[in-house]
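>> Question from a student workshop board

For tomorrow's exercise we were told to take the sequence and the ligand below, predict the bound structure, and bring the output to class. My setup keeps failing. Could a helper post the expected result so I can at least see what it should look like? The ligand is AHM.
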Amino acid sequence: MKQTTVVQHVQQQEKKILGATGEFASLINGILVGAKIIALEINKAGIGGDILGATGTRNVYGEAVQKLDDLANSTFLSIISKSGTVCAITSEEMENPVIIPPEQAGKYVFMMDPLDGSSNIDVNVSTGTIFSIYRKKSLGDTVTDQDLLQKGTDQVAAGYVVYGSSTMFVYSSGHGVHGFTLDPSLGEFILSHPDIRIPERGNIYSINEGNTENWEDKQKKFVSYLKKMDKASGRPYKARYVGSFVSDFHRNLLKGGIFMYPSDAKNPSGKLRFEFEAGPMAFIAENAGGRASTGRERILDIAPTNIHQCVPLYIGSRFDVEAAEEFLKN
Ligand code: AHM
Ligand code: MG
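>> Workshop helper replied:
Here is what the output should look like for this input. Compare the format with yours to find the bug.
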């Protein structure tokens, strides 16, 4: 077979990861199995029995939990907790971390947003899974805050799955960003986007503009600037906002542009979570030549103080994120 499968690719990349022993490839393999299960469930969501809609409960952030959120969370949890590769799992859908008993534990800490953008499922719009992998840092068997609250730069790898018109897996272990498309007839992810580089400047901005009234003035001015006519700098930019972060990020990664979820009067720290959304995507963006910041600070320099911490987010093409930072200064 001429094509490269994701497993072959990960095995090659693993050689470049300091101290990797095969555990990393096994962990990625677990994520891929989970992704295929979720992709199947999503594809048949309209006909597959009682899978659409909300569970009637709310998560830590007060958001309605969708049935597929629950399914995605329990699917990844059950596969990865038994993989022998991780000592702890944190999830956007779980208030507390799951700690793996030492006799079944491995050296990694796994963090996930099992189904991002899940409110889009019922209307057949793309969703995704985001993950981040760190090494256990503390010595001994106990899992401590030193392991669960690490700085973004300490990520060993990060990636996402987008359940779109095709299912794609995109990851980086610090050596480029690589994308794979699921061939449904083979059940294999095939390398389709090697070495993804985000354009230095884009012409797309992605933000929930319905929140304009809640933004600070500097944010309003930046969005107005993006909409002003100026041929030399490619303005006005196009507005594109799916409302599924994975899809919005994925499009901008390939085409160039900026995604923003700023702080506003309602959400002073923005809406997106450092460990499950901003941190892993910042790792991907930087490894593709892009930039990610809170508007004032590099995302990867943040060490969260709790696992559900939110951060304002500006992410995408380098020049576009720098332009946002310029507006937000002072
Ligand atoms: P979720 O992880 O609960 O699905 O929430 C995160 C989602 C992102 O996918 C998306 O970018 C954002 O929330 C949209 O928020 P809003 O509806 O406020 O624009
Ligand atoms: Mg999310």
